[in-house]
Amino acid sequence: QKEVEQDPGPLSVPEGAIVSLNCTYSNSAFQYFMWYRQYSRKGPELLMYTYSSGNKEDGRFTAQVDKSSKYISLFIRDSQPSDSATYLCARITGTASKLTFGTGTRLQVTL
Amino acid sequence: DVKVTQSSRYLVKRTGEKVFLECVQDMDHENMFWYRQDPGLGLRLIYFSYDVKMKEKGDIPEGYSVSREKKERFSLILESASTNQTSMYLCASTETGGLNTEAFFGQGTRLTVV
Description:
A: mainly beta, six-stranded mixed beta sheet, five-stranded antiparallel beta sheet, globular
C-alpha cells in the first residue's frame, strides 16, 4: 500500500465553486503533511503545511486532517481560473524533511 | 528571491549514454533531493543528500547515482540511460529544521531517452 494516495483527476469546476481535494494515508502514526501546488511546466510550490488533526486556514484555502479516517483534505473557496494546477499532498519525515508525495490531482477551473 | 536552478529544461539523449543532470541552490540549504515525476505515479524520490559528500537512496535509486562535492550543487547521474528513464526530473532543497520545513523546487528537466 502506498504511503499517500490521491485521486489523479482531472477535476473540472466552474469559477466560484468550492473545491475539495483529498488524500488518504496508510499509517496513523503519520502526523506532518503538506500541500504543494504545481503549475504546468513549473516545479511544485508549498501551499500549506498541516500537522496532526484539525483545520488550518489561509485565505481561500483550508487544510484538514482527519486522523481517525486517515484522510487529508484541501478546500478551495471561491475558486479562480488561476487555481488551475496540479495539487500534491505529501507526508514529511526526518530531519531532512523528506517528502513522500501522492500522485497529484489536476484541477481545472473554468470561466 | 530563493532559487533552485536546474541546468537544462529539456534534454534528449541516446540509449546507453551517460547523462548528468545538474542542480544548484543559492539558499545554503543542507539537504538536496532528486525526484522524478511521471503521469499516474507522481513524484518519486531517487536520492537525497543531507550534507556534502553524503547521500542516501530514496525509493527508486536503481540506474542512478549522485554526487555532492559542494554544498550548493547536487548532480544526478544516469550511468547508462535507458528509455524507461524518460521522465521529468525535479531537484529540491530544504534547510535542516523542524518538520514544517519548506522544500524549494527547480523548474524541472524533461529528459527523453531515444
